[in-house]
Amino acid sequence: MTDTYQQALALIEKANDILITTHTRPDGDACGCVAALMQAFRARGKAVRPLFVSPVPSWYAFLFDEKVPVLREDVQVDELATGPFGRCDLIVIVDTNSYSQLPHLADHLKRIDTPILVIDHHVTSDGLGAVEIVDATAAAAGLVVYDFFKAVSVAITAKIAEALFVAIATDTGWFQFSNTTSRVYRCAAELIDLGVSPTELYDKLYHTFSPARFRLLVTMLDRLELHLDGRYAVQHLVQEDFARTGAAYEDTENFINECHRIASVVVSALLVELKDGRVRCSLRSRGPVDVSKIAAQFGGGGHKMAAGTFLPGPIDHARQLIFDEVAQCLP
Fold this sequence. Notes:
Layout: H1 3-14, E1 17-22, H2 28-43, E2 47-50, H3 83-86, E3 90-94, H4 106-111, E4 116-120, E5 131-134, H5 141-151, H6 158-171, H7 182-193, H8 198-206, H9 211-222, E6 225-227, E7 232-237, H10 239-245, E8 267-273, E9 279-285, H11 291-296, E10 301-302, E11 306-311, H12 315-329
Parallel strand pairs: 1-2, 1-3, 3-4, 4-5, 7-8
Antiparallel strand pairs: 6-7, 8-9, 9-11, 10-11
């Protein structure tokens, strides 16, 4: 067992009341890790308080036995220092190590002296944790959690295995992305041996579009533009698209991957107008371009092949900002 694992285990064993959270716009990796950690900590007799900073997409709800509260919807920021959340003696942050990914929670974290344990696989880091289990070579935070569980002899039940499989499968594009290594397949095989049914999970995750979400997808595809000899694809959605289709912001998850069905596309961007006027930009690459460096130019981050950031609006301005950066990478 590594020193970091021992330090993390010591924090967990000492704690009685644990808050678990993750980044804004929680994806399958984030949701799967939170669900797995919740179950593992409760099995050790801990009081566990999960908290999301933005809503959980409906297709991940099956991972949780109860509705997980959302900050500023179910729990107000000033309640974090009082009541049940004020009793927490350990905070676990998974799948991010950046204040920018924890809106409205970041200021609270800076004010308190409660120990923080970070479990992550991103290079981008603000050093939030007193103890940090970070493996930037891991395809998903779910792999980091899995390795930690094995190292400290956490019993991986069928339910925990399912949550970890969702984390790993979704962050590898259901084993399609270039981050799908033999390590990923070995872990997936072990989780299947523990009771996971990949076919059932795939149906729950990818065959449950609402009509509203499908209409939003059609709208986005209708706006697809190809530039730089077809190597750069850009798509966008504005607030009126959500109002017209009835879709929600979280419904855009994985939409950006659709344009990579086009053989010529090397880099893609999806720009989504937010209610506050900013533009959320998601970036993907399947070639030599490191999109995390593009995102970093605007205060964002991520991985070489997948990254994101926020840009000033309007959409046309944001589109030009990203185009200029991509054009330098794809001359």
